[in-house]
Amino acid sequence: MTFEEIRKQAIAEWQALQNSQKPRIFVGTGTCGRAAGALTLLDVARRELAKRNIEAIITTVGCIGLCYAEPLVDIVKPGRPRICYGSVTLEMLPQLIENYIVNDNPCPDLALGTIGEETVPGIPKLFDLPMLKPQVRISLRNCGHIDPTDIKQYIANDGYTGFAKALSMTPEAVIEEIKKSGLRGRGGAGFATGQKWEFCRRAPGDVKYLICNADEGDPGAFMNRALLEGDPHAVLEGMLIGAYAIGTIQGYIYCRAEKPLAIERLEIALEQMKQYGLVGENILGSGFSFHLEIRRGAGAFVCGEETALMVSIEGKRGMPRPRPPFPAQSGLWGKPTNINNVDTWGNVSAIMQRGADWYSQYGTATSKGTKTFALAGKVARTGLIEVPLGIRLGDIIDGIGGGMVSGKSFKAVQTGGPSGGCLPANMLDLPVDYESLTKAGSIMGSGGMVVTDEDTCMVDMACFFISFCQEESCGKCVPCRVGTRQMLTILERITRGEGKAGDIEQLERLAQLVRSTALCGLGQTAPNPVLTTIRYFRNEYEAHINEKRCPALSCQALIAYYILPDKCEGCMICRRNCPAEAIAGDRRLIHVINQEKCIKCGTCLDMCPKRFSAVVKVSGVKIDVPSEPVPVTSTKAKTSKAGSVES
Amino acid sequence: MRERLMPVLAPYRGQRGALIPVLQKVQGELGYLPEEAISEIANFLGLTRNEIYGVASFYAQFRFERQGEYMVKVCQGTACHVKGSHRILEEVQDELGITSGQTTEDSRFSLERVACVGCCALAPVMLVDSVVHAKMTVAEAKKILDSFGKAS
Question: Which residue from A637, A630, A616 is spatially nearest to A586, judged by alpha carbons?
Answer without folding.
Answer: A630
